[in-house]
């Protein structure tokens, strides 16, 4: 079971707040952030910064957006 689903099994204020935070952000950006963190543990600081810069340059060119309704609940739309 992945970590996110495990949060749904926990009944605590922390788990609920964490679920709410994760549900409010782009799933694509969460996957990217997780991949960077995992790869970064095997890299030097310079390699981490270079990877972050490459990622930033590529993602600002990628059309990923959220359609936000009046209730401020994003419905993620992917441009890939």
**How would you describe the shape?**
flat
Global Rg: 15 Å
| Helix percentage | 55-70%
Give, in spatial order, the strands making up the sheet with the most strands: 1-2
**Alpha carbon gap, first and last residue:** 27 Å
Largest sheet: 2 strands, antiparallel
Whole-number mean pLDDT: 78
The H-and-E topology, N to C, reads as HHHHEE
Number of helices: 4
What structural class do you assign from the helix and strand content? alpha+beta
- Amount of beta strand: 5-15%
Low-confidence stretches: none
Give the strand tally: 2
Describe it:
The radius of gyration is 15 Å and the shape is flat. The mean pLDDT is 78. The protein has 4 helices and 2 strands. The chain has helices at 3-9, 13-24, 27-40, 45-59, and strands at residues 64-68, 74-78.
Keywords:
single chain, 80 residues, alpha+beta, 2 strands, 12% strand
Summarize the model shown.
60% of the residues lie in helices and 12% in strands.
Please outline the helices and strands.
Blueprint: H1 3-9, H2 13-24, H3 27-40, H4 45-59, E1 64-68, E2 74-78
Antiparallel strand pairs: 1-2
